[in-house]
Amino acid sequence: MTDTYGILIDYHWCTGCHSCEIACQMEFGFAIGQGGIKVFEIGPWQIEGDTWQFDFAPVLTDQCDGCANRALAGKQPTCVHHCQARCMTYGPLSELAIALADHRKQQLYSL
Amino acid sequence: MTEKREYVLIEHEKPWTYEEDGLKVARGSAWTGPGCHIGCGVLLYTDENGRLVKVEGDPENPFNEGRLCIRCLALPEVTHSTKRLTYPMKRDKALRGKNQFERISWDEALDTIEAKLKEIAEQYGPESVLFMQGTGRDIAAWISRLAWSYGSPNYGFPLSGLACYLPRVSGMYSTTGSFWVCDCSQQFPDRYDNPEYQDPEVMILWGNNPLISNSDGFFGHWVVDLMRRGMKTIVCDPRMTWLGARAEIVLPVRPGTDAALALGMLNVIIGEDLYDHEFVELWCYGFDELAERAKEYPVDKVAEICWVDADRIRTAARLFANAERACVQWGVAVDMTREALPAGQAISALTQITGNIDRPGGMIIPPELIFYGGGFGADLLTPEQTNKRLGMNQYPLLKFGFATFQPDVALRAMETGDPYEIRGLWLQTTNTIACMGADPKRWLAAAKKADFIVCTDLFMTPTIMALADYVLPAATYPERDGLRIGDGPQRGETINKVVQVGECKSDMEINLELGRRLNPEAWPWQDVKEMFTSMIAETGYDFDGLRAVAPAYPRYIYRKHEKGLLRRDGSPGFNTATGRIELWATVYANAGLDPLPYFEEPEPGPGSTPELLDEYPLVLTTGARNWGMFHSEHRNIPRLRSLRPDPLIEVHPDAAEKFGLKDGDWVWVENQLDRAKRRVKLWPALLDARFCSTDHAWWFPEADPEKLYEVFDLNINNNVTWTPGKSGFGSNYKCMLVKLSKVEEGETHD
C-alpha cells in the first residue's frame, strides 16, 4: 500500500522569497499571481520590546497537484526543490507528522 | 603556465547536457545577464524549437544546492521577452532622445563604430573615449581589455566615488593585502560537512539584507542555513527586517553613521580587554594607535551619533568579541557613505583584533583560480596612456591595484574638457540615468556633449533612448558561452549557450569582434571559446574540459598567514609593507590620508546641518533591494513586476500622520537638491519614526520613450550629489535629509 505524501512547512524559517510561487507558476504556466502555492506575510508588528511578529506562511491552493509528474520522475515538487530557506519537506505523511510534533510554527499539507 | 593544478571536484550523475522527456537539459552557471552578483548552478531546459522553457536550480551544485531565486526561475520570460533588443540600430546624433532608431546589420554597426573610434583616436587621442559599465554582469574583464587595447586608460563605472563594493575592496587590499569574506563553507564542495569547517558562532549583518541582495558571491540564504544550525546574529539596520526579528540583537543605526558605530564597538572591545592578544601581538600593526583612536569614541557619544541605545552597542560588542568564531557580512550601505574607506577599516578592525582571520567560521580570503581583479590586459597600455587615466593625480590611492577612472573626475572632464575633452562614450550594460549616476540630469547633460555614443544592452533603457547613436543587442546568459570565475571564492564553472535570440551577441563576442578590428594583436582569438581557453590556461583546463567537470574548486587552506602562503617571498605574514594586518595603514599614510579609521558626519545630515532639520526632518536611506529586480532591470517583466508594481517609500505611521499622508499616496521625496516620486507604504518596522527607506533605479518601461520612461520623475538619485570621499572612494548615496509632500494630480518632475 502506498503512503500518502505531504509537504511540511517549517514556516518560522520562511523568508518570503517567493521562489516557491514563481517556480510553480513557471512549471505549470500559471497566470501571473495564480498558482499552486501562495505566500502570505504576517506582520511586521511589534509585540513587545525587541519581540516582533514577522513571518511568512506559504499556503497550498486548489491549483496544487503535488507535482504529480515530477514525483513519477523521482523529483521533489518544484516549490520544495527551489525553497531558498529549505523550510519545506516532501515525504510520506506518517514521517512528516512525527516531525510536525517536534516544534511550533509548522504546517503540514496532505497532497 | 601550463601546470595542472589540483582541484576538488564533485560527482556528476549525468554529462553537462542530456535529454529528458523530450527536452534538452544543460547544466551550467547563471552569470549573466540579466545582472546578478552570485551565479548559481542551473539546469536550462530547451524545447525542440530552441526556446528556453524552464530553469531549475542544479541540486549537484554546492553553491546553491538546487535552490534558486525568482529572477532565474522567471528567466524564460526575460530571455524570450518581446521587448528585447534583437538587432543593431542607429540613430542620427541630432535625434538623441527621439524614438527614431533604424535597424542596421552587424556589419554596418561594427564598420561604423570601428571607423568612428579610429577617427577619434587619431584626432584627439584614445583617452578621449570613456568605456563604462554597470554592475552585476561579468563583463569587466572584456570591457577593460577593449578600452586598453584601443589605447584608452579610461575604463570604469559612472558611479560617484566608485561607491559600491570597490571602497571595501580597495580598503582591504590596502590594509591587509587580501580581500575578506564571511566563512559560510562556500569554498568547500562538501560545504557544512567539510571536516575542517566550523560554523561562525556569531555573524554581524551590517547594512545588508543578504536574503534579497545576494551581494558579490554571497548566497544570502546561507545565513538562514547557519541560523538553523545555531548561529546567532547581530543585525545593524534602521529597519526591523525578517532577519532582525530573529537576531540576538538589533542595532538600528542612523544611515551614514556606521563608522561611528564600529569605532564605538572597538572602544568597548579594547576598553574591556576582550580582544585577541595573541593575534594582535603576532599579526597586527598599529594596535596602540587604533586603541588611542577608539578612545575618542566612547559608547555614550557613539549612541548619540548613531541614535542607538548605548547598552545595545555594548551588548553587541561583547557578544561579537566573546564568540570563538565570528564574522561580519556587510552591505554596500557602508561603501555608499562618503567616508567609506575609514568606515570599512573600522568594521574590518572588529574582525581583526578579535583574531577572526582566516580561520574556520571567521573571515576568509576567497581563493582565486585566476587573478582578474586588476582587469584583463593592462599591459596593453603604454605608460604614457596609463598616466592619462582620469583621477589618478587627484587620488593617489587609485594607483594601488586599481584600474578604473575616478568617476567624479571623469564627469568634470565630460563637462569642462579638463584635462581633456571627452569625445566618445562606450556604455556597455549601464543604465546610468536610471541607476548608478548621481544627479542624473547633470550626468546626462555632460554625456550629451560627446560626439559619439554606443550602447550595448538587453533592453531599451532610458539611457539608450537619451543618448545612443548606435545600439548593440546583448545576450542573456542562456544565449552565450562564458566563464564563471568570480566573485567571492572562485570556482571554475562555465556558462553554456543553449538558445539564440534574434541577432543578439554576448558581451564578450561584441568586445572580441570590435577589439580585433581596433587592435588585432590584442585579440588573437578566433572565437570566444578560444579566448576563454586562453584566459584559463593556468588552470590546466580548456573551455570544454572545464565545462565537463565544473564546478572545479581550488583546494582551500586555512591560516595561510601562518604558513607563508600570502606573501611573494614565502615568509609568514600578510602581503603588506609591514607583513602584518595594518590597523594603522601605511598605504593610507603614503597617500596623504588618515592612517586610522574615523567617522565624519554625512553632509547634509542631522549632525552636520541641523539647521536643515526644520525643513527636511526625515533621514532617508535608499537602495533597499526587491526580490524580483536587479537594480534598474526587470521592470519590463510582468511576472516579476507584479510583486512590486510601484516604487515605494516606507514611512513610519507617526511620520505619515505628521505629513498628512496615508498608505498608497504618491509623494515627492524632496531634499535641498531635487525630488523624486514614490508611493507611501506605511511601515511600522522603521525603528525610528525619523527614518524612511526606499528602493532605487526606477523607470517605467511602459511610459513614453520620449519622456525617457519618466525616469526623472522616479529616480531617487535626483537627490544625490557627485561628491566623493577624500580618498576618491565613497559617496553619500544612501543617507540624506528629506521631506515628503503629496503629488498633485498630473504633476511631473519638471
Structure in a nutshell:
The complex is a heterodimer of chains A (111) and B (750). Chain A has 111 residues and is of the alpha+beta class. Chain A has four helices and five strands, in the order βαββααβαβ.
Helix/strand/pairing category of chain A: alpha+beta
Within the largest sheet of chain A, what's the order of strands? 4-1-5
Count of discrete domains of chain A: 1
- Helical proportion of chain B, percent range: 25-40%
N-to-C SSE string of chain A, H for helix and E for strand: EHEEHHEHE
Molecular shape of chain A = globular
CATH topology of the largest domain in chain B: Rossmann fold
SSE order and pairing:
The complex is a heterodimer of chains A (111) and B (750).
Chain A: E1 5-9, H1 19-28, E2 37-48, E3 51-60, H2 68-72, H3 78-82, E4 88-92, H4 93-100, E5 107-110
Antiparallel strand pairs in A: 1-4, 1-5, 2-3
Chain B: E1 7-9, E2 17-20, E3 23-29, E4 41-46, E5 52-57, H1 70-73, H2 75-79, E6 89-90, E7 102-103, H3 106-124, E8 129-133, H4 140-150, E9 155-156, H5 166-176, E10 181-182, E11 202-206, H6 210-213, H7 222-228, E12 232-236, H8 242-245, E13 249-251, H9 258-271, H10 277-283, E14 284-285, H11 287-295, H12 299-306, H13 310-322, E15 326-330, H14 332-335, H15 340-353, E16 363-364, H16 383-386, H17 407-416, E17 424-428, H18 440-447, E18 452-457, H19 462-467, E19 470-473, E20 482-484, E21 493-495, H20 507-518, H21 528-535, H22 543-549, E22 552-554, E23 581-582, H23 586-590, E24 618-622, H24 638-641, E25 648-651, H25 653-659, E26 666-670, E27 675-682, E28 691-694, H26 711-714, E29 736-742
Parallel strand pairs in B: 8-9, 8-17, 11-12, 11-15, 12-13, 14-23, 17-18, 18-19, 24-28, 25-27
Antiparallel strand pairs in B: 1-22, 2-3, 3-4, 4-5, 6-7, 6-19, 10-16, 20-21, 24-29, 25-28, 26-27, 26-29
Helix pairs in contact in B: 3-20, 4-20, 5-15, 9-11, 9-12, 9-13, 9-15, 12-13, 17-18
